[in-house]
Amino acid sequence: MPGTSAFDEIRGTPGDPTGRPEFAGLSDWINTTPAAELDRRQKAAESAFRQLGITFAVYGEDESAERIIPFDIVPRVFTAREWSNLSEGLVQRVESINAFLADVYGPRKILADGIVPEELVLGNPQFRPVLAGARPPHDIFAHICGIDLVRTGPDDFWVLEDNARTPSGVSYMLENREAMLRLCPELFEQFAVRPIDSYPDSLLETLQSVAPRPTGNAPVCVLLTPGHYNSAFYEHSFLADSMGIELVEAADLEVDDDHVWMRTIEGRVKVDVIYRRIDDDYIDPLVFKPDSLLGVPGLIAAYMAGNVALVNAPGTGIADDKAIYSYMPEIVKYYSGGEAKLPNVETYRCREPQQLKYTLDNLEKLVVKLVDGSGGYGMLVGPTATREQIETFRAALIAEPQRYIAQPTLALSTVPTLTEKGVAPRHVDFRPFVLSGAKGVTITPGGLTRVALIEGSLVVNSSQGGGTKDSLILSDMPVKKEG
Amino acid sequence: MLSRTASSLYWIGRYVERAEFLARLMEATIRLDALSPRTDGPGAWDSALTVASADHDFDLTGETRSPLAISRYLTLSSSNPSSIRSCLDAARSNAKSVRTALSRDAWEAINRAWLGLRGRATTGNSQTTLNIIESIRAETRGFEGALHRMLRNEAYSFLGLGAAIERADNTARLIDVKYHLLLPEGDRVGGQLDRDQWTTILHTVSAVTAYRWLYSEGLKPWLVAELLCLKRELPRSLAASADEAITHLNSIGKRTGLQGEADRLARLRHNAIDRTTIDTIFAKGLHEWLIAFIDENARIHQAIGSQFRFG
Predict the structure, then answer these.
(1) Checking CA distances to A254, which of A243, A269, A390, B285 falls within 20 to 30 Å?
(2) Nearest-CA distance from B104 to chain A in Å?
(3) What's the CA dihedral at A92, A94, A96, A97 to 10 degrees?
(4) pTM of the model
């Protein structure tokens, strides 16, 4: 069972006496800091998050108790070498994702060459035929990607999921670090941790770099939010504030003659770049869901006319679809010319009869996912599932095999985590944020570590008992002890 | 600044001011009710309904006019769009959507006031009501304090502008309801009941002591009217509210370089008040003067909406 024999990122593989000497200092810190003291600091962090309103239901007391995403005080660490390997793989993957998007909305060479089945793209609900021929500036579609990674050993990282639509969570990366700097300053004296506070600047630079055409002044960038009822509203207002750009709702924007304008007290101001945190389906009622009140009528026409940049571009969902995911190794190879530096988790496509049969024969060993599911819903974790759950999934698989993929259950790495019974290993995943702009790819040295707080659980989603941790990326420069 | 942001700030200013006015009205009404020897007849609570422009809507609810029913309607009713609860709901909802334009203190004051009413179904006896009212007043005072510590930018000005327009409207309505009590120049307040009524008005605008300081003589309706309409020294007077609207419009104009119809109307009103004495008001009829003032205030409100593109 995972949990007992899994690789621990701070303490190494159980039974292996060498452990991870590079993190001996952190291990000592965990061992020598009393659990009560860790708990005090963790509560201080959570109470600060509550006051800041990082939970979306902070305003009413009883709701906030259940909606705060738990924060774990024990950080996760990557060495400089691990990070540089990961970065190379991430750059290659994200460049390939953008090349794939420019191709399927353009000449469709990869389909003509038979690398990815045509019907899997063209018949996919995530593919938007109405956007065919779109040429966003610099051919970048997925400006912000959150690539979910898991780890099973010292050098074994796997891509679990590509998030190329509107990945969220970056505010946790930034706020978790602020909390750690305040509450555990001694760790930052001991380790040379690379700073992450440049993320809002990098993001703004990325937004400005993809403005449709040179403007006399700095391009006008805005963040489009569905509004304060949205669960990620805190992140939207936090990012707009950190970048110093307007946080707009659909009603603040209007499209006139294929240009986008925002209504300000000084009159209309032309908008060049929209960092939108609204899903494709809701973004323009003239093109997608006609009853959407969150969208801006005419926005897609302005985008297709090349008068406004949308970040991320609409239609990117085709690149992170779980059915397409299984072809990512081929996609990366096709566009980058080399093997994928970050491997996929082995994936069985249940749409193919052979693979469906294998899946049905091995349900108790596999993780089965809906191709269009997210947030840990519509998912079967075979080894921990009940007989009944397995049979329910078996029936569903037989009825609609094309809606599912299956993967082996991985022994996800663990990181020491503060639990009610002291510090104990818990499974984690990792989401770094990758920015693609006119000047190339930027990766802030950090990311969001999610941790499954329930013992043995592999599900890290916040809706199902997951928490977050700070993720420290070490510099290869030695620490200046004298300060 | 986005027009929506400006609009939300302006309305936060209006709603918090209205909630505070209602709280003071409730407090003064409870006091008057306690002083009044009669328990029947057109009592203090009927008058409170009229001042809040809620008598018609209250009667539509089908409830009998009792102190408890009226106090609940003005304080807690969700179906009354101008109850304290509805005002705080609206203020908080606007505040949430422009959270980053507000200081943390200002947000917390609104949120605490709102939390204070959550889950309350009834106001209970007058002591309980007074406790509720006192805590709302404490939070709205906290909000005013937080405003004074905010950056003096457009956000501050829109909040203040909303408060100034709302205050002008509230004070004018309060005087108008009592105008029939006004006696000719020089007359002293008649009986004890009248005296209580006048004190109630002064309580509602926190001006009991102010009156003594400014006039150093017994309560004269004539002077009370002058105080509430024309005395710039009294923050809740019509003249002071009109001045404040201009101050905020000017500072928005300075920062954005834009002036318009709202500025023009606000200056006209200011100049007109400057030339007015309480004698000319009475010559024309106080009621007519007040109605004209309320209409003018509504026109300025409209002009603000169109000038800043949120009307």
Answers:
(1) A243
(2) 9
(3) 160
(4) 0.85
pLDDT, residue A460, reads 83
Instruction: Look up the ipTM and state it.
Output: 0.76
Question: Range(s) for CATH 3.30.1490.270 in chain A?
Answer: 348-408
**8 A C-beta contact, residue A159 and residue A148:** yes
Whether residues A59 and B96 touch (CB distance < 8 A) is answered with yes
The answer to whether the bond into A461 is cis (omega within 30° of 0) is no
For the record, the structure tokens of A192 come out as 């040379």
Q: What is the percent of chain A with per-residue pLDDT over 90, rounded to a whole number? A: 75
Query: Best of A265, A268, A294 to disrupt the B interface by mutation (most B CBs within 10 Å)?
Result: A265
Which residues of B fall within a CB distance of 8 Å from A237?
99-100
Q: Domain locations in chain B?
A: 1-150, 151-311
Q: Do B252 and A265 touch (CB under 8 A)?
A: yes
| Termini Cα distance of chain B | 15
**Could A265 and B258 be called an inter-chain contact, meaning their C-beta atoms sit closer than 8 Å?**
yes
In a 10 Å sphere around its CB, with 0-12 CB exposed, 13-18 middle and 19+ buried, how is residue A80 labelled? middle
> Which ranges of chain B have pLDDT less than 70?
36-42, 180-193
Q: What is the pLDDT of residues A412-451, one digit of tens each?
A: 999 999 999 999 999 999 999 999 999 999 999 999 999 9
Which residue is associated with the tokens 């006696």? B183
Contact B6 A265 (CB under 8 A): yes
Here the tokens at position A126 are: 């995530």
CATH of domain A213-307: 3.40.50.11290
For A222, the 3-state DSSP assignment is strand
CATH domain A348-408 topology: Dna Ligase; domain 1 (3.30.1490)
Range 237-256 of A in CB contact (< 8 A) with B: 237, 240-241, 246-249, 251-252
Rounded Cα distance, B200 and B207, in Å: 10
